[in-house]
Amino acid sequence: MSSSIISRLVTKLSGTEETDNAQEDLDLRADGRAVRVGEPDHCVSHPRCCRSARSRHQVFAYEGAAALAFTRQSPHPNPVHGKNLAEENHPTTKDQVAALLAEAAKNGGKVDWVNCGMCVDERGVNEFVPGTRRGSPADFQAFIDASDNTLALPTK
Amino acid sequence: MAKKSLNIVESPYRAVIEEQDDTILWLLAAMQGAGGEHTMVLRGNAVNYAIAGQGAPGLTVGEWKQTQAPRMDRDVADLIENRKIPVYVVEEDLAERGIASDELVSGIKLVSRRGLPRLFAEYEIVSHW
To answer: pTM for this structure?
Structure first.
């Protein structure tokens, strides 16, 4: 399971904070792109995102990204590197999504995370992290119309 | 009130197995139906979406058959004719790929690279897919 989308959201949100636009509503669109997991440069940017989460953000996760919040993801050990489950502490995107929502709430913000319904159905990933919800392109359109700005993160 | 959105599509043919595989075209059709006001620009390899008469015959695996194969040209025509979504193609990207304008789906508009900034200025939202 890739955490790249989370990481890219994090990076962009961090940038929002740096430019002092964190009070704006931001509509984020995430598509699932298979890349590396848990890269240090991406991981360190995660807390920066959470600090910026005091504003209200909206995410529409479609295609592969619809699995980011799937609750049945499981961490695994790394026998190649001789690490057991606890030592490996493998990242899962469901935990990152949950942490992002929790951190936003702690800072008085909100992340409205919508998982594309058709996308989750065809992948069998329709068990979501609490606080995320099922939706459709109509939600996506509503996000755009209600937001100050949008950011597209497409598949390459 | 829907915001005017310009959608630049550059990543085409993520797969050609099922009829939603031209994801952004499908998504824009759905969003237009939900009250959006979208325009699309095809650039790079995505200009190939606009060629009329292309096909992706249904995949067959043993006894299993894909009965709803993707039809990219049909979907582009649907955006233009039924959804009323203007569709532009970057003309230099067509030329670089040896594609003539008479090969395109009816109703496609051409825009030059130099003309893109003027087009951008007409929209509140510009997304690059």
So the answer is: 0.79
